[in-house]
Write a structure and sequence with these properties.
By secondary structure, the chain is mostly helical. About 55% of the residues lie in helices and about 0% in strands.
Length: about 90
């Protein structure tokens, strides 16, 4: 297993980031994609700051956060699609 650092959930070993592979079973490439999605969400929030936005922005943020803060989606292709949509 490749090295990783993941701090995305409440399951991190000892309340610290996982470094040898997720306690949850997540692999490093998936953790990296979730980090990329988090970055895309930050970019979207910055672009939307001070502007009126449509419901699709709120939906994108909610979907992206659900994908990154819970361990329910280890489907790398689905995460890639979410990054593109964001």
């Amino acid at each position: 297993m490749s090295n990783m650092f993941c701090f995305q959930c409440e399951q991190t070993a000892g309340g610290k980031g996982c470094t040898m592979g997720g306690v949850c079973g997540k692999k490093a490439p998936t953790a990296n994609l979730q980090d990329e999605l988090t970055g895309a969400l930050v970019g979207l929030a910055r672009a939307a700051r001070g502007r009126e936005v449509g419901e699709e922005v709120y939906e994108a943020v909610a979907a992206g956060l659900f994908t990154t803060i819970t361990n329910v989606n280890f489907d790398d292709e689905a995460i890639r699609r979410q990054i593109e949509e964001t």
